[in-house]
Structure formats: structure tokens, C-alpha cells
Amino acid sequence: MLSNLKTKMYSVMLKFIKDKRGVTAIEYALIAVAISSVLFIVMGTGGEDGLTAKIKEAFSGIQEGLNVQTSNASTGGTN
């Protein structure tokens, strides 16, 4: 009886050790953490130095330029 239990426990332990599905899930989790960390560093926290703020600043400049051009076109001026 005890040897059967020992054999079954040994079999279960070997099966658990050889199973790689958990390892793959952990690897994917580590990759996701690394990617999100890089994105957080690149995008910034939304402050004045973040990438998002720089993109908004660039689009604001483009919008101002377009507004100047349309107002000059409607008044007959050139710029």
C-alpha cells in the first residue's frame, strides 16, 4: 500500500516537473511586464516631459498654423 502511494506520488511529481505550461505563462507575464515598463518610461507619466505631451504640443502647433492659413485666406491676406 505504501509503495503504491510512493509510486503514484513519484509519478505525479515527475509529471508536474515536466509540465512546461506554467513556465510559458510566467515567461509571457515577464515579457508583458517588460513591455509595459518600457512603454511607461517612453510615454512618461503625462507630465511636461512625456511623449504624450510632446505629441500634443506638435499637433497644437500644426493646428495654429492651419488656423493662421485659413484666417489669412478668408481675409485675403498672404502668409
Can you characterise this structure?
The chain has 79 residues and is mostly helical. It has one domain (16-75). It is 82% helix and 0% strand. The chain contains three helices and no strands. The chain starts with a helix and ends with a helix.
The number of domains: 1
Q: How large a portion of the residues is in β-strands, by DSSP E? A: under 5%
Return residue spans where pLDDT drops below 50 for at least 5 consecutive residues.
none
Q: Give the end-to-end Cα distance, rounded to a whole number of Å.
A: 96 Å
Radius of gyration: 30 Å
Q: What is the residue-mean pLDDT, rounded to a whole number?
A: 81
Described by the principal axes of the CA atoms, the overall outline is rod-shaped
Largest sheet: none
Query: By helix and strand content, what is the structural category?
Result: mainly alpha
Portion of residues within helices: over 70%
Pattern of helices and strands: HHH
Count of helices? 3
Number of strands: 0
Q: Can I get a quick summary?
A:
The chain has helices spanning 2-18, 21-43, 51-75. It has 79 residues and is an all-alpha fold.
Topology:
Elements: H1 2-18, H2 21-43, H3 51-75
Notable features of this structure?
single chain, 79 residues
